[in-house]
Protein: 6-phosphogluconolactonase
Amino acid sequence: MESLTIIESKDELVTKLKEEIEKRSKQAIKERKQFSIGLSGGSLVQYIGEVIPRLITDLEKWKIFFCDERFVEESNQDSTYGCYKRILLDGQTSLKEEQFIKINTKLSLDDSARDYEERILREFNCSVDHVPKFDLLVLGMGPDGHTCSLFPEHNLLKEHNRLIAAIDDSPKPPLQRITMTLSLINNASCCCFVITGESKAMAIKQVFSKSLDISYPVQLIKPINGDLIWILDTAAAKFLK
Ligand SMILES: O=C1O[C@H](COP(=O)(O)O)[C@@H](O)[C@H](O)[C@H]1O
Structure:
């Protein structure tokens, strides 16, 4: 199933995202007693920070992963985990640090990517030849059509062997990052994009024109056996009819 919702205000966005997360978490917890969610960084952090404290869900059963992460210490303002930690831990919610599966920045970049992949496999009780199935990945998009740390025309778009990969030449700072690859992302039960702001409008127009001439990484997100949800604000959707 693919759906598109265009929202008028931040309150409406938070409500829509809350509905999706609540629905998916209830179903996963009912079926498997655990909910696995992957979060992105950037502008999404503020929305997730408003959604999670309002959710009716069993937060204890959550495992939170990162769709991509900047390879910096968590005290650095670029750290996605660091941003979530400041708004979700320290008493704002009942979430605990152990529920976050995060990268180890004490290792080298490549070892950290391998270590993060192994941790994910362990959390899902998967062997190396099985691809974990996340219940929900919440994704963003940059004005250049990148998602996670998968950038236009980058070699990582052709990575089929790894579930997690390192990038040390990111066109958007910081240079070093760790990201889910397309194989892992497209195996999720649901990929939900949250895209806001006028700077994304041209890329959105081209993505929805389904033109084969343009190749944005977001166009490669097609869950094999799952749902694809687009939540856009009116600014990002301004060229859509
Ligand atoms: O660098 C990143 O950018 C994308 C998009 O961020 P936004 O601020 O334009 O929404 C984000 O989804 C990704 O996680 C992040 O590392």
Summary: The CA atoms of residues 104 and 112 lie 6 Å apart. Residues 40-44, 68, 140-142, 147-149, 172 surround LXAUTJHC (CB under 6 Å).
